[in-house]
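Writing this down once: the sequence line spells out the residues, with the fold written below as integer tokens. I am pasting one below:
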Amino acid sequence: MLDQGTYQQLRTPRSPAALALDGTWHQISPRYVVSEYVQNAILIALIVVAALVIHLAFEQVWVWIPAGLMLVVTLITLIILPRQARAMGYMLREDDVVFRRGILWQRMVAVPYGRMQLVDITQGPLDRAFGISQLKMVTAAATTGVQIPGLTQDGAEALRDTLIQVAEPRRTGL
């Protein structure tokens, strides 16, 4: 009675082979850059439409100053985006996973497998359209949580499965 009208079968994730803990750097998908370009183009369109509405409806010319500043910042972001994407990567080592990002202000975070509490894969609507995902690793320390954007769906699932498989026997008092 309770289960009437429910699905007959659960959708199971694809489970590719586990990744090797060989210490080589892996980069994110180039589709991440295209997805970010589309998202920023939508943002630019919204800024222009909002500024036009305010300018035409209320006859306010000053609205173009903040709109112009926001457009300049967004365009600069679009220019450096491909280089930022090439600077992102992760490496699976024997005892931890290392994530790097940044051009001028570089950040490298090493998360020991035994300290991972949660490995989460998320996708927005545009990410789903481009076939990319974001993998998030959560630890007890707020500063060591790592988000790896721009992974392919298969790559994110393989990384998640590998991290869970490697982390499970190494849990330390959690």
Notes: The chain has a mean pLDDT of 90.
